[in-house]
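>> received
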Amino acid sequence: MKKLLSFTQASSISLTDDWAHLPFQGDGSIVIENNKWGISGGNVRGDKYTQSITPNGWSWEVSDTKVSSIAGYPEAIVGIKPWTSGQKPTEIWPIPVASLGSLSFDISFKVEAIGSYNTAAEWWYLKSPEMAPQNIVAEVMVWFNKSELDPFGEHAGACCIAGTEYDIYVGTVTHSAEVPGGWALISLVCKSPVYEGKVRVPVGEITEALFSKRILNPETAQFLPGFEFGNEVKTSQGNTTLHELSMSTPPAKQSKAKFRS
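>> returned
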């Protein structure tokens, strides 16, 4: 695998410990996480996977050429991740799906990478407001770009939401004993890839579209605990700089929270 010629991050603070956290640009409302979940799952050799985070992004290198599945997902997190049991609800999170309205996120980023990876936002749907893996019913990913990596599941058509065209893939993830019966993984892959710039993720509109297409079940997808943005990585090397992540809260909340560099 070729080496990147330029490999820089605009910060002197860097953490390499698995699952380390840093506030995005010093604002604790968004957390940068050194997510290397594939090591614990046996997907990748730990001695062939290095990854670091800074207050404005992350870098990684996976030299293991026999990676069986995703090695990790270095990421930015807004809200709560349902995989961490015992977390308490906040003033905003989890949001009842019935109150999503026009909830959307604006993300400004730049990714420079080679090998097998994607750049994607994701969020989870829960059947109750309790933060526990067993309450997960679905996961939605929006892929902004991909390289040598295919979405999980079967192709389930295409759609255009808020002016962006996507291919849709749907499958059932069953590898975790913490989620009896597994959960639906729905991936929306942008037909026009983005590697640098600003994108909008209309979570509310996407949710309604998936309900109307009967891909997502409104009777079980009741709560949204948070929002994440990162890179799923396999054998690859790269770095991502996050410039902005801003959230428009649902109309029912009558507030607006913005986070930017």
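>> Residues 1-10, 253-261 have pLDDT under 50 and may be disordered.
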